[in-house]
Amino acid sequence: MPAPVIGIPRALGFYENFPFWRTLLTRAGFAVRLSAHSNHDLAAAGLHTVMSDNICYPAKLMNGHILDLLSKNVSRILLPHIVRERKTPGDPGSAFNCPVVAGYADVVRSAINPQKRNAIPLDTPAVNLSDPVLARRSIEDYLTKTLNVPAPRARAAFNAAWTAQGQFQAELAARARHLVETAEAENRLVLLLAGRPYHNDPLIQHKIADAVTSLGAVVITEDIAREAPLDVPDLSSMQWCYTHRILSAARWVAAQGPAIHFVQLTSFGCGLDPFITETASEILNAAGKHLTLLKVDDVNNTGSLRLRLRSLVESLRGQPPPRQAAAGQAAAHHPVTENTFHPDHTILVPFMSEFYSPLVEPLMRIAGYKVQTLPPPDAAAAEFGIQHANNEVCYPATLVVGSFIKALASNTYDHDKIALGITQTGGQCRASSYIDIIRRALRAAGLAHIPVLPIAATETTSARQPAFKPNWRRAATTFLAALCYGDNLSQLHHATAPREKLPGQAAALRDHYMAAVLPLVAARDLDGMARLLRQAAADHAAALDPARPPAPKIGVVGEIYVKLNAFSQSNAVNWLIAQGVE
């Protein structure tokens, strides 16, 4: 009896981990069938199921590969959730995957739903490849419970797969080193093509590698720097596996001789690349080298890309050797010390929401620091952000940067007695790198001496500013109570505003009860906060117009800053309230 066939799409994360999954499934007793090589017909076949036009082309291609597998008589399709990739010695602590790669299985289930369309199950096990223990547990659970594989065979399959993936990665690095040695012996130019693993797909990269080799140069990938340690002082948090590898590769190229240069491939939809590219460029510039950025996506005319490559290769052959620097580092930030930063200095923080931002100042006082929340962003702040931040970063980042620069340009503050504070989420969103975007904006504005403090409870982010030591333990209980207070006040306001007796009554109650809680927060009076919230509930209930029927409810979801900040969402929530919506 032939073995059941499990289909694997030739797309996204499988360009990184296919040896692991192929070995796992074959050792477990299954046959593996890949989708076809990417081509324009395959891409076009899946376009009608693509749910967002502004997502990157590599993600759009996945839909075509899934449809291709549905025509190949597979028993199941595998598309796992891999939030964290496998670590190598040089990887960061988190090794996060790209959010699109990690979560695209949910998109496929919603847009195509192979189970409903062709009665083919879509297997989406959640796997943490950065932790071998957790990876083994989830993989064995998938094999035994979903695929009915005996436990001993599942365990042996995992061990073989883990070894196979390690050997594959070691072979990639060894092959790259061999190519470099051969190129040096033959006095040939070497171009390192840095990108995500799926940029190995010839359709996605438009055969750029072939174009480079046809010009007589040698192509290697960032795999040569997989295990290279990364120490870029400008980065407070670098937790993505792929982008960490790109920067490690930039460090490696910066330390090499004049025949080795750096080219980065990026797909238009990748939100992390704006600041990653700037950091890589700074690393290379410090060594007298330059970054060449090629933006590749679903374009048909690749002539301009090939012309750029030809110009690059010819110019590199004719230019003098670059100035070599020992470190090849990005510009460093200015860490605070006990001599340069004192608890009585003012920390400026951006405004996010009227239900939470006013609470920050008394909470940070409890933690031992003086904080001032900036005014809500406006058009002027947006303009400052556009001028001083990469224009491809998200709008919240533009507004945060712009609010800071606007405040510093107002001559309101003594620049020697302030710092900027920004939260560090430590997640997959680019918000985890706001601190680096802000530092770069300060340098662009000639204000690099102003420190930026990561407001976070974890040592991994705050350790870069050792003199900034908030007493989170002292503030923790009050912080949680204040957060709950803000949540409840928001709920009361949004339920009352569309059915208020008098115009503006709900807004007045919101402002009153936010102002009234601040001294209670400062005094850490949790019982007083609870009593005040009960009174707020009663007053909001009394403000309801009994003649108005219950309001229709609309859920507003999205990125936290856009969702909660009125200016960033063009007052959409207030417009809904004006239409009688809760």
Provide a concise account of the structure shown.
Helices cover 48% and strands 10% of the residues. The chain has 582 residues and is of the alpha/beta class.
Structure description:
There is one protein chain. This protein has 582 residues and is an alpha/beta fold. It is built from 22 helices and 14 strands. The protein has a 4-stranded parallel β-sheet, sandwiched between helices. Helix 10 packs parallel to helix 11.
What does the main sheet amount to?
4 strands, parallel
Q: Strand order, biggest sheet? A: 2-1-3-5
Level of helix content?
40-55%
**Average residue pLDDT:** 87
* Fraction in beta strands: 5-15%
Secondary structure tally: strands: 14
pLDDT below 50 for ≥5 consecutive residues: which ranges? none
Shape field = globular
Structural class of the helix and strand makeup? alpha/beta
Q: Compute the number of helices.
A: 22
Q: Give the end-to-end Cα distance, rounded to a whole number of Å.
A: 60 Å
Give me the Rg, rounded: 27 Å
Which descriptors would you attach to this protein?
582 residues; alpha/beta; four-stranded parallel sheet; 14 strands; 48% helix
